[in-house]
Each structure stands twice: as structure tokens, then as C-alpha cells.
Known about the structure:
This protein has four helices and two strands; from the N terminus they run αααββα. The protein is mainly alpha-helical and about 150 residues long.
Amino acid sequence: MKKRTELDERQLWQRGNVFKHAFVFLIAALALEALCKAFGVTWAQGPWEAILLIWGSVALCWWEFILRDINPMGRSQKTFFFAMGLCGLCMVVMELASLAAGRGPLLEEGMITSGGAITLTGCLMASILAVYLAKSFREKRRPAGDED
């Protein structure tokens, strides 16, 4: 199988750290969710609690990949960021349009509804593109040879 990218030793080490950070975040979030359940607090309807925790962990991974200049997908990574961000924006716009049409609230009885969870998931997806664009803009504005 043909490799899409070659990561150097530093990038491989940092990629491992990224996955470690996402795993620790996910474990901590699951522990907090279990604590909420123990006290009878439900913060999202149905399976959306777990889905939002997973998407939070995935977004954390991609943000760190972008900020640390790790490219596990090679050249296609830029296309992936734009596809992910545009899909997220579409999700947010569609949910806000359905909210305006009176389909249902984003919060109900102190819990995130499915519409609210889809909106948050879309925001997490769009944030991946936002972080990529912000990093790209910052690198273009930085003078050549300026290392922090």
C-alpha cells in the first residue's frame, strides 16, 4: 500500500502526544458524565451525550494537529479541513433554519435537544476549518525567518 505522507520522528512523537491528550480528555469527560449521571443530571437527550463527547475529542485532535503542523493525511489534509468545515457550517445553518421555522428548541428542560446537539457538532466541525484558516493567516502575516 502506498504511503500518503512521511512523518519525521518529531511529528510521530507529537502525533502520539495528540492522541494521548485526546484520550485523556475523553476519559475525563466520560468520568464527568458518569458523575452527572450519579447525581441524576442529564445534560443532553438520548445518545447525544456520548456523541458530543466523542466529537469534542475528535475536534481536540484536529486542532492540535493543525497547531503543531502535523500532517497525517498529506496533501489531502487541506481538502479535508474545508470539507469538514463546510459540512459543519451547513449543519449549523440547517438547524438554525429549522429552529426559526419552529421545529423545536435547542434546549428543553435544562437538556440539549437533538437540534442543539447537531448545532454543537456542526460548530465543532466548523471550528476545525476556523483553526486551520487562522493558522494559515497567521503564518502568512509572519515575516520569513521569524521563529518563536
